[in-house]
Amino acid sequence: MKFTFLRWRTEKALRKNKSLRASTPYRKSNLVGIIFSVEDRQKHDDVKEFVRHLEQDGKQVKVLEFLPKKKENYEFLFDFFTIEDLNFWGKINNDTAQKFLETPFDYLFYIDQEPNALVLNLLAQSRAHCRVGRYGEGLEPYFELMISGQGTPHGLIENMYKYTKQLR
Fold first, then answer.
1. Which residue segment(s) compose the domain that 74 sits in?
2. d(CA 157, CA 74)
3. Residue-wise over 73-101: b if at least 16 C-beta within 10 A, else e?
4. Nearest in space to 91 (alpha carbons), one of 6, 4, 162, 3
């Protein structure tokens, strides 16, 4: 039942969110967000490497991860939220997640191969100027830039980085 309410909240957020959406030239961007679902150690390491690249480019980076049940939070390096933060009415009650979605990122990267309903809810509410994610049918309202392709999270990250660096 709470996932039905979550879906309604997400659809409403997509309609009501009037945040300025634009792609800032990569060189002029300062604040970058990354959101992803924990899967395995390799994905965690790929995200860490991505953060290092962005920081080397002079970006301030904030990361939020969705931690599913029975998954390990490697190194406790990133802020996280869990399914336990979803209340009956489909609202995510987590101060860290709330602060994250209110941050006006120049770019917000969503690094998941398959969409996660909780993360999509945060993307719908996000104040980010340019949301970047993997292409999927029906996901167009959540992103300003979608990257096509199958493969690993590492490949997705590489393509996201490559194409956003080309934005002028």
1. 2-165
2. 19
3. ebeeebbbbbeebbeeebebebeebeebb
4. 6
Residue indicated by tokens 């104040």: 127
pTM: 0.94
Residue-wise pLDDT for 51-87, tens only, equals: 999 999 999 999 999 999 999 999 989 999 999 999 9
- Which domain CATH number covers 110? 3.40.50
pLDDT at 164 over 90: yes
Q: In the sheet where 107-110 sits, what is the strand order?
A: 79-81, 60-66, 31-37, 107-110, 131-134, 145-147
If you search the block for the tokens 């941050």, which residue do you land on? 103
- The pLDDT value recorded for residue 85 is 96
Question: How many structural domains are present in the chain?
Answer: 1
